[in-house]
Amino acid sequence: MSTQIQYIPRMVPEINDYFGTEDMSFSPTESFMNALPRRISVQPLESKTKPFSKGDIKILLLENINHQAVISFREQGYQVESYMDALPESVLLEKIRDVHAIGIRSKTVLSSSVLQHAKNLMVIGCYCIGTNQVDLEYAANMGVAVFNSPFSNSRSVAELALANIISLARQLPDKSLQLRGGNWNNSSRHCYEVRGKTVGIIGYGHIGSQLSILAEAMGMSVIYYDILNIMPIGKAKQVPTLDELLRESDFVTLHVPETPDTKNLISSPQIAAMKKGSYILNTSRGSVLETKAVVDGLKSGKLFGAALDVFPNEPRFNRSNVFNDDLNKWTSELINLPNVILTPHIGGATMEAQSVTGLEVSEAIANFITQGSSLESVNFPEVSLRQTNFDDNALRILFVHRNIPGVLRKVNDILSRHNIEKQYSDSNGDIAYVITDISDVTQSDVHAIYNELDKTSERITVRLIY
Ligand SMILES: NC(=O)c1ccc[n+]([C@@H]2O[C@H](COP(=O)([O-])OP(=O)(O)OC[C@H]3O[C@@H](n4cnc5c(N)ncnc54)[C@H](O)[C@@H]3O)[C@@H](O)[C@H]2O)c1
Ligand SMILES: O=C(O)CC[C@@H](O)C(=O)O
């Protein structure tokens, strides 16, 4: 008989309640954080235009997004509703209906069937690296820009991968578990140094290349496989085929995104190609590694250990008794195997990474709302216009449209009674985006311009900032 779990969304406590909670750490993190070079400014660009009352803009933040984001949005005057967890779909459908911006991490799936309920949505912020949880194309076709934080947690993931490499080599999880059970076993059987061993990195992007540096510093040899030709760091060597990497590595570690090409990238044939007594690590996405093949590899003795931070199915909420066979059918087999490290998707879960991510994505969201800037969006044409000498009679027009010939001419015909101060347009596949600043606009011009642009058959969205 299945049990129905009643879910009551847990709101994030008010900001002052954060201090003194277990999540808060002041030392040594605080001094480190203050010394971090800041690529981003804490305050978003001050808009000289008057878009609307920010108090009318509703921002929904899910999955316990860092309190810096909540503080920053509230200080700017936005309405913010913030929840500890991902919402069950029925609640999400209700909540997403009238929000203008939503911030998520990896557990909230924004599929087309969810997004079609979002009537006011302008922008999605993924407070993480991965964006596979969002239907990016559908969002772009709605005129909704999606932003992520492309490298703020790369170091955290790379450090976890290195820690797992050493832990697997020394059988740390099992030794610790045995001693907790009263069992003293200081045998060196199958315990190794990592120095001189080879780590094979699949996906030499932000995380893979960080790990490369850390692993070399430990005296390891690094080889990597990537679909792109990427310049090696240090003495690392790119290998031409996945097969070569699998054959030569003592530790194989996955750092590719979830794409149709990476689904089950490592499965039984790839594990068969690995060295006997090697180890596999996955901190990328659960879909990239066929976990049943890992279970079989561990059982047969082909693999000496595995460290998995991500799984094909992951719980949406932090709860007890959820990591079981109902979630993934091989779970009980996996948890009973020796030398296996299982972590609940914590690669990027550090105070440092969450704080930087919180600021970076919030800044992108705010700049899209107040300026229309889509720089570094993952699904949108990248357009941004500098604002200079804006006076009370200036108007900024943000027009997202189908990417077909003749649209810019139509737009400029509509605007022809005004001086175009600045204009910038870009396209990305079927979508194009043009930002135009015009001057000498009266209140009735604003309405006329809006109505005319709104009627154009190629329009996806039109937004005016004045
Ligand atoms: N466990 C966590 O908490 C955590 C945290 C951050 C990121 N991630 C995951 O890690 C992934 C990688 O992050 P990143 O910042 O290094 O990404 P990245 O985009 O910087 O690097 C990914 C690399 O993979 C390569 N690649 C893509 N498809 C490939 C294929 N089929 N074969 C070989 N190489 C391929 C790309 O060319 C790129 O160099 C993210 O997409 C995300 O899913 C997990
Ligand atoms: O914070 C998360 O939920 C996901 C982190 C990680 O998987 C990422 O893609 O950045």
From TrEMBL:
GO biological process terms on file: L-serine biosynthetic process
Molecular functions per Gene Ontology: (S)-2-hydroxyglutarate dehydrogenase activity; NAD binding; phosphoglycerate dehydrogenase activity
Q: Which keywords appear in this protein's UniProt record, sorted alphabetically?
A: NAD, Oxidoreductase
Domain ACT residues, every copy? 396-466
List the Gene3D superfamilies hit by this protein, alphabetically: 3.30.70.260, NAD(P)-binding Rossmann-like Domain (3.40.50.720)
EC id: 1.1.1.95
- InterPro entries, per the entry: ACT-like_dom_sf, ACT_dom, D-iso_2-hydroxyacid_DH_PdxB, D-isomer_2_OHA_DH_cat_dom, D-isomer_DH_CS, D-isomer_DH_CS1, D-isomer_DH_NAD-bd, NAD(P)-bd_dom_sf
SUPFAM superfamilies, from UniProt? ACT-like, Formate/glycerate dehydrogenase catalytic domain-like, NAD(P)-binding Rossmann-fold domains
Q: In which pathway does it act?
A: Amino-acid biosynthesis; L-serine biosynthesis; L-serine from 3-phospho-D-glycerate: step 1/3
Q: From which domain of life does this come?
A: Eukaryota
Family matches, as Pfam families: 2-Hacid_dh (PF00389), 2-Hacid_dh_C (PF02826)
Per its record, the protein catalyses:
(2R)-3-phosphoglycerate + NAD(+) = 3-phosphooxypyruvate + NADH + H(+)
Give the UniProt family note. Belongs to the D-isomer specific 2-hydroxyacid dehydrogenase family.
Q: Which NCBIfam families match?
A: PRK11790.1
Q: This chain belongs to which protein, by name?
A: phosphoglycerate dehydrogenase
